[in-house]
Design brief:
By secondary structure, the protein is mainly α. It is built from 8 helices and 8 strands; from the N terminus they run H-H-E-E-H-E-H-H-E-E-E-H-H-E-E-H. It is globular.
Length: 205
């Protein structure tokens, strides 16, 4: 660990901070969001088999029988790092590392599950794929989602980072109305408002 991280003030890691996020606007960005507080000391949100299962359910997939959760986690961690490198590089307008690009392209070669319609509880319809995914199929699904995002200029232009310096979560803005400043008003937005109120209250007397 470098000196900057060692000297940085430690922040309490709450249960809320370890919550999985499914509001980034894209499957690949939801994977990136399984790490919190990237600018400082990262917080792992998908650190074991139970959290992997929760993440899969949250994004609407399930692992096929016989898949080793630890192997799936290791593979997702590698893809997550590559996805973050590529997405953050697009936001900063510089080139990502070639290894990140090569990994995503390699993983995307596997055919993902064929999509199909399933009736939703509210009477509507939701797109579904084969819900029992092998490790390779899951990785391909995420890698292809990232490729779709990066190669779609309109979607890529909506890529942004939370304005909170201790969050910086990558997400897709809705594209309508005023640009979103925070990943979530309920989370970082409310924290910023509360900090602003305290700052004004503690101002010059």
């Amino acid at each position: 660990m470098d000196g900057e991280q060692r000297d940085a003030p430690r922040r309490r890691v709450t249960a809320g901070l370890r919550e999985l996020r499914f509001d980034a606007g894209a499957l690949s960005l939801n994977l990136v969001a399984t790490v919190g507080r990237r600018p400082g000391v990262p917080v792992e949100r998908m650190g074991d088999a139970a959290r992997l299962d929760a993440w899969c359910r949250g994004v609407g997939v399930a692992l096929a029988d016989g898949q080793d959760p630890l192997e799936v986690l290791r593979s997702l961690y590698a893809l997550r790092a590559a996805a973050y490198d590529i997405a953050s590089s697009a936001l900063a307008r510089h080139r990502p590392g070639p290894r990140s690009v090569d990994l995503v392209n390699q993983l995307a070669r596997t055919e993902p599950p064929v999509p199909r319609l399933e009736p939703a509880a509210d009477g509507g319809w939701v797109p579904q794929g084969s819900r029992a995914l092998t490790r390779e199929a899951l990785l391909s699904l995420v890698a292809r989602d990232l490729i779709d995002l990066m190669t779609d200029g309109a979607r890529r232009s909506r890529l942004t980072a939370c304005a909170s310096e201790v969050c910086r979560m990558l997400f897709l803005d809705s594209g309508g109305g005023r640009p979103r400043k925070w990943c979530s008003m309920r989370r970082c937005g409310n924290q910023a408002k509360a900090a602003g109120h305290r700052s004004r209250a503690d101002g010059p007397r």
